[in-house]
Amino acid sequence: MTNIALVVGATGITGSNLAEKLIDKGWTTYGLSRNPGNGIHGLRSISADLLNPEDLAEKLEAISPTHVFFTTWMRNDTEAENIRINSTLVRNLLDCLSSKQSIQHVALVTGLKHYLGPFEAYAKAGTLPETPVREEHPRLKLENFYYAQEDEVYAAAKRDGFTWSIHRPHTVIGKAVGNLMNMGTTLATYATICKETGRPFHFPGSAEQWNGISDVTDAGILAEQMIWAATTQAAQNEAFNIANGDVFRWKWLWHQIADWFDVEASDFDGVMRPLEKEMANDADSWNTIAVKYNLREKEMNRLASAWHTDLDLGRPLEVMTDMAKSRKLGFTGYQDTRDSFFNLFQQLRDENLIP
Question: What sequence ranges are listed for the domain PRISE-like Rossmann-fold (predicted)?
Fold first, then answer.
């Protein structure tokens, strides 16, 4: 039987990498997004509004996916609004597809806010988990849109009889333009500005992050785990952490990144320098750089999401993820974190997004 994938959020970091891997593996792959057109060869793009059930029904009328991969969300001003909107996105899609009875599996991507709390209470004292974080860690007694999205998947699975998997990456490293959470490209943009202007490449975060152990998730290894879980019986109806499989300290990696860009990195002096403040007046500088080097993207905010990088690097604890659960079930993927960053930087350069 042919596997027919519907990747929801196909223009994002996670969705675009996943779509490419599915196509490479021979899956018929549809990509749903509000603004399609990421240039993935073989992707069947669909433009639809997840908040509009009538539009969804019209756009998906002729499509009966066997596997749904949900990789998108919308940022709102409060967690209550995040819950309302982002649970609706999942519910509308699964309700729209319910009558087709074609779905075998639904995979949902969330993240470490499952353990660290929502944006409004992110990594605050009183809610901090023991690390490494493990899948059996109970839900926090806080409102969290990740929990609401999970509950929508559970309810639809009970109704329609499909299996599911939940995937909880750490910070995802990969290429996407216009993405809300994009540390790798944010750091590339910041390093480029520092080099061009002669500013030191300051670490923006906390002492705990600078000195502590951390890990990240390459978009490619996240995609591999999602496909593995969707096609492996032992992985059905389970939640999985997913990270590269190595660990590092930012005090080491920061200098590695600086060396790649040939920019001066300053050692952390105990002062947090959030990128939202450091880059607040850099839009014109980026435009000047983009014009000078004839770059494809002249709007800095299409590349840099300083707020999210600050959120991750400003945490008051070291954070790493336990991968034992999926490894014991057979997922053995591994990715060197330096390669995650350096391969991304080279791709950005090759595609004329950074000089």
Answer: 65-355
